[in-house]
């Protein structure tokens, strides 16, 4: 156990010293994976095959997937809750990584990520949700407008609920490039950006010509990824807060998109 903790702390130290290049490589890999998924979606016969399933079977499969996602996310959160203590591996890893970042990062890097992180602030995201919701209603995409608002607002409400349940204190940050208050776990910037920009990419897939599909999804993925990890760079969240934010965001986004696709399938039947 002590050996594992020593290795985790050594890795946290190394990661903190090389965080920006590691982040850049991870972003490239994430965009490559996203590109592969979009290409597979556009050329896969599975996308068309499921539309011929009987409605009861389709509903059952969607419910099973949704339940599995929720149970998996809840289990992850429960495991992380037990490991938040400063004497446990995740808690010590978070602390060592944050301490190293505070020591190693330049003001220029903090300034850049301090500007980037505002794209995930509640106000711009809320304005985007309202504006696009109105546009969808005006263009008579009522179901999409409802799904868009419910997905984005629901993510924010559930995140606040989770914060109150876990009540994790944020790391100390006094560099002046970002301000944050309230509880830390899970990261609201991370989950909110992933859901809002992820839903925006889904709407682009539904409503825009095919030539815009890949660019819109890649832009959404880049924004969600970068905004999420900016919170660690700025030391306003622990790394595990951001991991949990991504997990919650992916789970909620998947459920919301599945519900919209299911409603579209039933409307056509």
From TrEMBL:
Spans through the membrane: 20-41, 57-78, 122-138, 145-162, 182-205, 212-230, 242-262
Record-level Gene Ontology MF annotations: undecaprenyl-diphosphatase activity
E.C. number(s) listed in UniProt: 3.6.1.27
One matching Pfam family: PAP2
Entry keyword set: Hydrolase, Membrane, Transmembrane, Transmembrane helix
Top-rank EC class of the record's enzyme: hydrolase
Keyword Protein biosynthesis: no
Domain Phosphatidic acid phosphatase type 2/haloperoxidase: 142-257
UniProt-recorded name of the protein: Undecaprenyl-diphosphatase
Organism: Hydrogenophaga laconesensis
Organism lineage: Bacteria, Pseudomonadati, Pseudomonadota, Betaproteobacteria, Burkholderiales
């Amino acid at each position: 156990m002590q050996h594992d903790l020593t290795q985790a702390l050594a890795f946290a130290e190394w990661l903190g010293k090389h965080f920006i290049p590691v982040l850049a490589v991870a972003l490239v890999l994430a965009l490559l994976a996203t590109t592969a998924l979009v290409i597979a979606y556009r050329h896969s016969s599975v996308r068309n095959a499921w539309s011929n399933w009987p409605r009861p079977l389709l509903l059952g499969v969607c419910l099973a997937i949704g339940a599995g996602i929720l149970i998996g996310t809840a289990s992850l959160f429960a495991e992380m809750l037990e490991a938040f203590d400063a004497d446990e591996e995740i808690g010590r890893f978070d602390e060592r990584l944050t301490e190293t970042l505070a020591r190693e990062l330049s003001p220029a890097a903090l300034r850049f990520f301090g500007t980037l992180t505002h794209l995930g602030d509640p106000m711009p995201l809320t304005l985007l949700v309202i504006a696009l919701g109105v546009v969808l209603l005006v263009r008579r995409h009522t179901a999409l407008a409802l799904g868009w608002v419910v997905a984005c607002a629901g993510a924010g409400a559930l995140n606040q609920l989770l914060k109150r349940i876990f009540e994790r204190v944020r790391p100390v940050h006094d560099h002046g490039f970002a301000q944050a208050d309230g509880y830390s776990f899970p990261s609201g910037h991370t989950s909110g950006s992933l859901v809002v920009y992820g839903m925006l990419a889904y709407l682009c897939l539904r409503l825009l010509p095919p030539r815009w599909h890949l660019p819109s999804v890649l832009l959404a993925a880049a924004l969600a990824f970068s905004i999420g990890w900016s919170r660690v760079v700025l030391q306003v969240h622990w790394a595990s807060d951001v991991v949990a934010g991504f997990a919650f965001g992916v789970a909620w986004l998947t459920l919301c998109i599945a519900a919209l696709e299911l409603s579209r399938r039933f409307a056509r039947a």
